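## Example record

The block below lists the input lines for one assembly entry, exactly as stored, with component labels intact.
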Amino acid sequence: MTKYILKRIAYMILTLFIVATITFFLMKMMPGSPYTNEAKMTKTQLRIMNEQYGFNKPLWEQYVIYLAGLVHGDFGISFQYSNMPVSQLIGSRIGASAQLGLQAMIFGVFFGVIIGAIAAIKRNTWVDTTATVLSIIGKSVPNFVLAVLLQYYIALKLGWFPIAGWGTFSQTILPTIALGVGPLAETARFVRTSMVDTLTSDYIELATAKGLSLTQVIRKHALRNSMIPLVTLLGPYTVSLMTGSMVIENIFNIPGIGEQFVKSILTNDYPTIMGTTIVFSLGLVIVLLITDIVYSLIDPRIRLQGSDA
Amino acid sequence: MKIKKLLAAGMVSLTAVALAACSNGSSSSNSKTINWMDSAEIPSMDISKATDVTSFNQMNNVMEGLYRLGKDSKAEPALAKKTTVSSDGKTYTFTLRPSKWSNGKALTAKDFVYSWQRTVNPKTNSQYSYLFSGIKNADDITAGKKPVSSLGIKAEGKYKLVVTLDKRIPYFKLLMAFPLFFPQNKAEVQKDGSKYGTASKYMAYNGPFTQVGWTGSNLSWKLKKNPNYWDKKAVKLDTINYSVQKTPSTGYNLYQSNKLDATILDANQTKQLKGKSGYTLRDTASTFYLQYNQKSNKYLKNANLRKAISLAINRKQLGKAVGGDNRPASALTAYDLTKVNGKDYTSSVKNAYAKYDPKAAKTYFKKAEQELGTKNIELSILSDDTDAGQKTTEFLQSQLDSNLKGLKISVQNVPFKTRLSRSTKGNFDIVVSGWSADFADPISFLDLFTANNSNNNGHWKNSQYDNLVAESKSEGNNSKRMAEMQKAENIILADQGLTPLYNKTEAWMVNTKVKGLIYNGAGANYNFKSAYVK
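Predicted C-alpha cells for the full assembly:
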C-alpha cells in the first residue's frame, strides 16, 4: 500500500509539472500583456514595463525563472490586484468556494441517494416516474437560472433567506441548493440505475429468501453495493464544486475563487493563471488518489497495483 | 429508520435557519448612512498603482488632492488654499492649507513630492505614469534616464509646493483633481512595505471619509466620515456601506428590498425600468468608433467609401442593439465631457455623415466604386467577443449589407486583448474601438489621432489636424483653445478618418432620497463629499 501511494505521488508530481509546463507555454501564446491599463499605455512605456517584469527575456528563461519560483512555493504577484501575492489571493478566496462546494456536495449526495434509492425500490411506479422527471429537470435547468429564481421568490418575495452575501449560515442555504441540485439529480439517476442492478442480482434474492426484511436487505446489501460506482463520480465532482462556480458566486456575492479562473485568463494575469491552474490540478490529482484508495477499501474485488497486500 | 430520523432532523434545522433568517432586520438607510455598490472588487488602494475606476472612486472619497472634481467636471480648490501660475503657464505655486492624515501626522508639501516621485519612479511600475508627461523631466525619469529627484516638483517650507512643467498643460488643474496626483504619506508607505494599499488598514487617508473593513479581496466594506478632514463640516454622511454586485439582478433585488440605494442595470432591466422614478442615466465619457485601416487596405483609403459606411449606419438603433440606453455619437469627443460657454463641447462639432441616410450612402458608395474601379469590395469588421462587441458587429453587418449593395462585410469577434494587439499591429480592415477619457478635456480624445500616436491604429494622417492639436496645447486662452480643438475635430470628421458610433452610458436606479451626490463621467466618477439623505 505504502509503495503504491509513493509511486502515485511521484506520478502526481510529474503530472503537475506537465500541467504547469503546458499551461505556461499556452498562456504565453495569448496575445497582449497582463497590464490592466494596456490600451492607454504608450509603446515606450510598454517596453519599459516589459523590461521591469522580465517579459523581454527569452521564453525558456522566463519558464526557468517561473519554475524556480514555483519550487519555492512562490506563485508571484497578481497583476489584477497589485501588490497582492497570488498565494494570498487564492488563500483568501478558496475557503468560501470550498465551504459552498462541500455543502452543495453533501446536500446533493445525501438527497440524491435517498431519492435514487426510493426510485429503485419503487421502480416502475409513479414514485419512480416522478423521481425520474424531477432529476431530469434538475439536471437540465442550469444552476444559475435556479439561483436567480430562488433569489427572487424565496429571498426577495418570501424573505426567508438573505438575498445575497456571505458570512452567516443562512446566507449559504440558497447558493447551496442552487449549486447542489445538479449533483443531486445526477446522483439520484446514478444510484437508481446501480441499485436496480443490485436489487435484481442473485445475492439479494438470496438475502430475501433467507427471510431478511426489506429494510435490512436494502441497508445491509443493496445500498452499500450500489454506492461503489458513486465513488468514481464523487472525486471529480468534489474538485469542480470546491474550486468554485463563477456564476453562483457572482449571483450571491460570494467571495470565492470561481471568477478568478476566468478573469485571470481574460486579463493575461500570468501569475494568477498559473496559480489557479496548479491549485485546481493539485486538488484533482489528490482527489483521484483518494478515490482509488477508497475504492480498494470499500470493494474487496479491487486490489491496487503494486500493493504488497 | 435512520434515514427517516436524519430527514426529520434536517427539516427541523432548515426551519430553524429559515426562522433565524427572518429575524435578520433590514439595514435600510437612515438619515446619515447610504448603501452603495460597485461592479468590481477594489484591485488596489495604492495611488501609484491603481488603474481602474473602482479604485479611483474609492480614492476620490478617502483621499484629497490639491483640487477636487466638482459639478460639471470643474476642478475646485481643495488642499490648495492659493494657486499662482506664472505668465508662461509653466510654473504653478500652490499654498497648502494645514491638514492631517488619518494616522495623525501633519500633511505637508513633502507628501506631494513623495507621492509624485514614487509614481514616476520606473521601479514602482505605475501603469498610469504617462499622465505625468509634461511635468518637468517626467518622461526621462520613467524611461530611467534621469534621477527621480529631478522631477519638476519642489516643497518650499511646509506648505508651499512649486511645480514646473516642460510645456504648458491647459488642463493641469483637472489633472490635480485626479487621484493619481494626490499626496501619499511616506511614513505609511514605508511602514506597510509591500502590503501598502492592499487592505484598509494598510493606508493613510486624508479625504472626507476613511475606509474600513476592506481586506484586499472581500466584497463589502465601509467608508466612515473622517474626523481629521479639514472640511469635515461639509461632510454630511456618517457611513457609506459599499458592496460589490456583479449580477445586476441581485443588485436590483437588494435595491427593491432597501438594502441598496443605487444599483447598475443590465440591458433588460434598462428596458423595463426606463422612465421609472429613480432611473438615472450616467454618461461615461467614452466613445465607441470605427477606425479604418488606411495603411494596408487599398479600399479604405477612399474617403467616399468611409462616408458611405458612416451614412449607412442607424446610430440610434445601434445604441439600443448594443444593450442599454446608449447615446448616438456624431463627434469623437464624448458627450457631456465638458462645456464651452454653457453649451456642451460637442454641440459645435460638425459631422455631416453622422445622420442615417441610406440614399446618400448609396450615392457615395457608387462614387467610391467608380474611383476604385471595382465592384467587389470585401471588408471585415473586427471587434471584441463580448456581448456588446458581438451585437455591434451583427448590427453593422446587417446595416451595411442591406444599405450598400455590393459591399461584402465579414465580421471577426476576438477577445479584448487580441483585439488590442491586432489593432496596434494594424491587422484589421475596420475595427470597433472604444476610448474613455481620464480627465474632462477633449484633448484626451483628439490626441489619439495625431500622426504618431500609438492609438491611431488606422494611420489616418492630416498635417492641418496635427498642427491644430499642437497649437491648442500651447494656447493660453481657453475659449480659443476649445475652438481650435473643435476645428481639428471637424477636419477628421469631414474626412471620416474615423466614424463615431455611440457614447456608452450606464443606466442606474438611484434612491431619490440621496441628494448632493456629484457624478462625473471622466476620471473618478463619484464624489460623496457633500452627499446627504433627505
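The two ends of chain B are 60 Å apart (CA to CA). DSSP finds 16 helices and 25 strands in chain B.
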